[in-house]
């Protein structure tokens, strides 16, 4: 197996009496799309937040690209190539799609947001932003104000914002949430393209999407890894079926 791009070793994060992350270890290898699934409250978001540096663990270590990043702040991890897709709520609604992406590119370049005016003018920021918008299929919508974009388009814009920082690893927390059938299918098609270019960790409740996209799946229950394997093995895994998938989540094949 290739040297992991991300390695999490014995991570623990407690909230009062609850271990949201309970001695969790896992690896993400370069080029894979690694899905993380688990029932509500299993600790998926807490894990992602620790990977990005928004939440600090009580103990354990996070290695990214061979480096111990456990105590590094979010912006330093972002510089190293670790990006979390911004949530819709963090998009600037009165700004155009391209302004939002250019600002992210500018912030990543190390400039302060207060010089946002420059992001409108600087050629290389506009070019980076336009390329990111093209990659997510929003090339024709670049000048539309965010509030005029559909929910699905705003989700795509979140991805473009993350891509503008040129990540090595993209962390996606429920990109399908709130999407209709057509929009979800579009997002799956988009992620199928993006996975060719960037390593992805995907937290998602939509099992159809997960099984259509993932190279490997880690299953969390009560902050612990109960299984980590390829989709076919996860589908057949007795403990996973018992603990999570159950009968209402009969998982079908979408190859
Ligand atoms: N800031 C916090 N303060 C207190 N408890 C928290 C906090 N964040 C998470 N928890 C608790 O940690 C556990 C894991 O929560 P987390 O949101 O990470 O789970 P999740 O798998 O992402 O859930 P969901 O699928 O519902 O988004 C839950 O019991 C939750 O109540």
TrEMBL record:
GO CC terms for this protein?
plasma membrane
Keyword Transport on entry: yes
Q: What is this protein for, i.e. what is its function?
A: Involved in beta-(1-->2)glucan export. Transmembrane domains (TMD) form a pore in the inner membrane and the ATP-binding domain (NBD) is responsible for energy generation.
UniProt key word Transport: yes
The record places domain ABC transporter at: 6-247
Q: Which Gene3D superfamilies match?
A: P-loop containing nucleotide triphosphate hydrolases
Q: Report keywords, A-Z.
A: ATP-binding, Nucleotide-binding, Transport
InterPro entries in UniProt: AAA+_ATPase, ABC_AA/LPS_Transport, ABC_transporter-like_ATP-bd, BCA_ABC_TP_C, P-loop_NTPase
Q: Which GO terms describe its molecular function?
A: ATP binding; ATP hydrolysis activity
Q: What is this protein called?
A: ABC transporter ATP-binding protein
Superkingdom assignment: Bacteria
A Pfam family matched by this chain, by name? Answer: ABC_tran
